[in-house]
Amino acid sequence: MLRTTRRTFIKVAGSAIVTTSLLGLGSFTQASPDIVRPPGAVAEQDFKNRCLRCHQCIDACPEKALSSGHITQGWNVTATPVLTSACTLCMKCTEQCPSGALARIKSQDARMGTAFILEKECVGCDKCIKPCPTGAIKKVPGKRLVAVDAAKCTGCMMCVKHCPVTPVAIKITPEGAKRPKVSSKA
Question: How far apart are CA 124 and CA 53, in angstroms?
């Protein structure tokens, strides 16, 4: 007959608890699919490998458009820069990045994502049209609604900043983001 000692029981129970906890945290190991990175961010896997989490890019942003990623967005996002407010594409963040996670690109080459109009929330007030620096947002003829030309949108969040609706009727997703190739110099 197999006899279980108290010590063996505690080891097995402890291992089971740790394993269950880790499996439960599995969702935290993957980045949330709706994370929008700063301009010049290299491909996500390279970005996560290169980013030093030094926050020099966040500190350099005069618009305070960047925030530190939170654990709820995924373990790999934690403390990395995330675009959370309107970006003027001044590119100061890319100038400050010491690791190459943010490539030094021209502002006209920046594309962080694409704006999507949440039709159920949009009231057609047009307050997002004028602030759009690329003219990507237009009024839908005959409707109280606006539409985004994805080919023109940079994902800068100017439209989100000016949307007066609660909850905001515009969402920026990383879809269509232009991520520079990694340079071997960094």
Answer: 39
